[in-house]
Amino acid sequence: TEVTEKLEEVVMIWIKQIRKVLVESEQMRREADDIGPSAELEHWKTRMSSFNSLLEEIKSSRVKKIINILQAARSKTLKQWKELDGNITIAANEAKDNVRYLYTLDKFFGPLAKASPVTMMEHVPSLMNTVCMIYCTSPYYNTSECMTSLLLKITNQMINTCKMYLCEG
Question: What is the DSSP string of the chain?
């Protein structure tokens, strides 16, 4: 029982740390007013990397051994552990899925940032069709918050490109 208590203490520390990561990942992002859409992709790539690392750690043999010992001891901490394990898996899947969908927009980021206003407008219909496809098919990214954030960043990039064009001319 002494070993079980020590292992439960370790798992409770992990649970607190994982909860902190999950809470921080759900907090509002503070971003510059003129940030472009490539920042959205970078945000989700970073988040995917973080959650994948956390999942790797959770699935490691060291952690599995501790969890197996606590299962044999019928520890009450496992209920919280399993819930958090599921939440981390969901967050990792969301980030991975969002990166996959946002990569479909990557081909538009260059023309949005470097084109003249006239040539930039040639890309807008395809860009909007791709955004629509993301909204219609993504299981995670189809919320009004995500779409608003993405469209705002696209608009910011278009405005920045137009400003640079006007300043050069």
Answer: -HHHHHHHHHHHHHHHHHHHHHHHHHSPPP--TT--THHHHHHHHHHHHHHHHHHHHHTSHHHHHHHHHHHHTT-THHHHHHHHHHHHHHHHHHHHHHHHHHHTTHHHHHHHHHS-HHHHHHHHHHHHHHHHHHHHH-SSS-SHHHHHHHHHHHHHHHHHHHHHHHHH-
pLDDT digits (tens, 9 = 90+) for 96-118: 999 999 999 999 998 888 889 99
Q: Tell me the two tokens of residue 85.
A: 């394990």
Provide the sign of the torsion angle of the four alpha carbons 89, 54, 91, 27, taken in this order: positive
pTM: 0.85
